Amino acid sequence: xxxxxxHHLVGGLVVALAAATVSPSSASSHHxxxxxxxxxxxxxATLSADYQAPGPPSGxxxxxxxGRQGPFPGQVIPGFSAAIDNRDxxxxxxxxxxxxxxxxxxxxxLRLYLVEPHWKTARGGPGAVEVLRHVTxxxxxxxxPFPIVNETTRDRQLTGDDLDIESVQRGRDGSFWIGDEFGxxxxxxxxxxxxxxxxx
Length: 200
Hints:
This protein is mainly beta. Helix content is about 5%, strand content about 25%. The strands form 4 sheets. A 4-stranded antiparallel sheet has the order 5-6-7-8, with no helix packed on it. A hairpin with a 5-residue loop joins strand 5 (about 80-85) and strand 6 (about 90-95). The longest helix is centred in the first third of the chain and has 6 residues, at about 25-30. About 30% of the residues are buried.
């Protein structure tokens, strides 16, 4: 899959990855003017709220906001609920269920995005997030025990009407364990995003 073009706007979505740049030693050694320990923001990177990832149109039923009205020509990234540091400058970053509710998120595909922040620090830098590729969650083996939006399709890709994903951890085998708040469930998917077993 080719990389989508990079673009970003000042005032776009601030990616919640900056905390990864604060080391325990720097956080514990810094004191504010009242003598309290505190963390300092060392770097930041943003991704435009208008970013369009490849995929089918999304947001047909989303409520207009901030001058934006769906449907959008691709898959928007409205924010990240969770991220995994790959220790190589990249992160697996996970949006939640889309547009805030089951009823308006049936065209929002649940994904993990591999992103590379190009940090802005006190010394400069672009402060942009590059989206490298993505993995779309799917249930081709019919492990999910309830009807999903794409029930009758071959790939059975999962949407924000099916699950509301909020957290993620990676197993040693490269699979992902994803926390959902609709069930609530824990969903285990392989490295390609395919559900491996019934949600717990």
